[in-house]
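Help: why these numbers?

___
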Amino acid sequence: MIRILILDVYPNVSYRISKDQNGGYGTANDYGDSFLSKILKFIVKGSVDFPPLYSVQVCGELQKMGYDVKYKREENDYSSYDLVIMTSSIVCHESEIDKIKEIVRLNKKIIVIGPFASSNPKTYIDSGASVLKGEPEMFFHKFEIDQNFLNSIPKIIENKKSYNLDELNYPGWEIVFKNYVPKMKFLGKGPAVNIYASKGCPYQCFYYCVYPLQQGRKLRVKSPQKVIDEMLYFNEKLKVKNFIFRDPVFSLNKLHTVELCEKLISLKVKFNICIETHLKNIDNDLAKLLLKAGVKLIYVGIETSDEDVKKNVNRSSEKNDLQIDKVRFLQKIGIDIKAMYIIGLPSDTEQTYLNTLNFSKKISSTYAQFSVFTPYPGTPAFQNYKDKITTSKYEDFNQWKLVFKHDHFNQDKIRELLDFSYRDYYLRFNWIFKNFKKLLKLW
């Protein structure tokens, strides 16, 4: 029997790293250098942890084909494996390259998968690995791995297969759970798994957003019943009640979203759900439906309060007053909101930054995240800034460091503004009084 290792490598750092977020390029929550920033890093690292969903989906596809599949984050003995499949990211890139070189010295076959390697294959190939371009779960669905394939793996594997999302097998969470149990304490106690109801995003912010690089800009949906069946399956098999939907924009297709919510409401089992979406896709009626369906936490990108700064990066948002009203309504009915802001957008100044910070306090969401504008390789933004990049290390592209020469900020100033943002937001008496009980549940 062919034995396959799904290897998911991470550096040893003090902050949480997620390869599943940021379109599969990954993000590393290095909030800053102050005492408060370090506390936040500690809380988040201990509260949220899950692998890239594409790797779990590949586990499921390979398991269905009858292969002996293991998922690990560390491995010292590769002797029993016929093939190593490694997840890729920008935030763990140098660590992944070091591991590839180690495995290649052992004469083991290694294929790197995931959006970052798919868009930026050169360094992985130069290190001795092969790179699978495109969505790996599509390639490995019903794919037969035999000795002939292992003996002749090309440096670049072009995936030309595409299946309806309903045709894919369940992700291999049982395999992952043998190694560690994913968690999302902001949703509740017990294990949490990531899931999707749709892929693809047509929005114009693809200028700097990496989601469309592998998922495309065309919306593809999984049938509501397939989603429900998957949730019930892992609830029964692994006692999972917490689900993190990894759709780039959860409620793009309102009819699909309503049907899914109605099916969730009709179930005897009640789940705790986290989604990421755009405020312009939510009205009061849909908000109430999401709540009834089990949605406890919503991530929304606000980015900036300045209209000119938005236009400069093709960002389209609701008017500021509407964003405030919608967040307040969602929180009033019982849904927590994590609002996400970006410091150092290309036309940002210190004044536009301060305006955004003050706006974040007007919105007063349950949680606020302040990160740094990052022109990612593969995006149109990178083409505009590639001659201004100030770092040679990919792992610096983590959303909390300035990696290009900005007209108004330098790296030290950005770190100073990060620390100030988190202090100014979270050390308000009103925020502490309102959310203290939520924080106690995370310990």
Notes: The chain has two domains: 1-180, 185-440. Residues 281 and 294 are 18 Å apart (CA to CA). The longest strand covers residues 295-303. The two ends are 44 Å apart (CA to CA).
